[in-house]
Amino acid sequence: MPSIFTRIIGGEIPCHRLFENELVIAFLDVNPLSPGHALVVPKEEMAELHMLSPESAAALGAAVAHVAGAIMKATGAAAYNILQNNGALAHQEVMHVHFHIIPKYQDGRGLALTWKPCAIDHTAAAELATRVQRQLGA
Ligand code: AMP
Hints:
Elements (H helix, E strand, L loop, with lengths): L3 H6 L7 E4 L3 E5 L9 E5 L11 H22 L3 E5 L15 E6 L17 H15 L2
Antiparallel strand pairs: 1-2, 2-3, 3-5, 4-5
Bound molecules: adenosine monophosphate.
């Protein structure tokens, strides 16, 4: 079953397209948090970011920066957030990789965050960093 974003890429479902190249498409979110809220989507159909090919991931990163700049100029927004959810537990609803670009306005429209940091445990952090480095082959 193709994702709804694959159907948009295929032209089967309409969208307000902002940008497209061989590997990526960007369009306005149909239920925006603020004016200019956009999604940047790789044409490669993968559910989560780490599953993408390096080519898709690189094209996606470049497109996010490119489109974000255009949205900032076009909307006059004061700032913006980039949001990228992976997995239902992390609030991903559409299981096809996408970055949100969410303009933030002086009146508060945009992404509202709840951020609850805690103090780092340096012993545990050093062990974890070693485990991740091993996964990275470093
Ligand atoms: P996420 O929770 O990160 O998976 O967000 C999925 C986003 O896709 C939501 O913000 C939806 O409003 C958006 N969305 C779903 N269907 C469409 C569509 N047909 N066109 C544009 N945006 C969509």
